[in-house]
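A quick word before the example. In earlier lectures we treated sequence and structure as two separate objects. From today on, think of them as two lines of the same record. Here is Transcriptional regulator written that way.
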Amino acid sequence: MGVRVMVVDDHRLLAEALASALKLRGHRVLAAAAPAAGAADLVVARAPEVCLIGTATPAEPGIFDPVVRIRAEAPQVAVVVLGPVPSPRGIAAAFAAGACGYVRHDERIEGVERAIVRACKGEAVVAPQLLAGAFAELLNPAVQPDDEGQRLLALLTPREVEVLVRVAEGEDTRVIAAGMGIAPSTARTHVQRVLMKLGVGSRLEAAALAARTGLLDRAAPVVPGQRSASEAVPERPRGRRSP
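And the structure line, produced from the sequence above:
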C-alpha cells in the first residue's frame, strides 16, 4: 500500500511533476501546493503521513517556520525537506525545526521514494554523501572573507576603528579624546563619521552592530596598543601659550 504524501514547493511545476511521479509509483498524493508559505495550513488540515517541503534557501532565517508549526499541530506527520546542496547550517536548521529528513532536489525518484518510506517508519533520512559533506565543511570551514564584519571594517580608517573600539568600551567623547591625544571636537567628528559609515544612529547601536558582526574581534589586531585615559596625555588647548 502506498504512502499518503503531500508535496509542497514554491515551484508549482516541480511540485506537480514530483506528485505525478509518486502517483505512478502507487502513492496517494493528497496535494501539490505552492507556495511553501501556505504549507502548514494544508498539511495540518489534510494530515498526510509524509510531507515533502521544497526550499531553495535552507539557511535563510525563518524558512523552516512551516515545519515548526506542522510538528507542533500535527506531530504525526513526518516532514522531509527537498533542497539544494546544503550547508551544515541548512541541514541543522531543517532538523532543528522538526524535519526528519533532507533530500536533494536533484535526487532520483527512487531516492525520494526511499526517503518517504523511511520517514513513514519514523527513521531519519539524510543521504550519506550529504552527511559526509557537512562533516567535511564543519571540520574544514571555508574562509568567508566577505562577511558583514569584514565589510564594515573595510569602511573605516584605522583611526575610526580605534574610535569604534573605544565607543564599544563605553568611553565618552572626553575620554576618547584623552586616550587618543586629540581634541574633543576631533574625537566627536570621528564618532560621527563612524556612525555615518556604519549606518546607525547612536553609539549604542554602533557598539551592538560591531559586537554582533564580530567586527570588534577583527579590529583587535588592527588597533595598536591603546593607552588608557589615565595614561594619556591630553592635547594642549589651542590659542594659549604656556608661560
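Notice the following. The chain has twelve helices and six strands. We will return to this example when we discuss secondary structure assignment.
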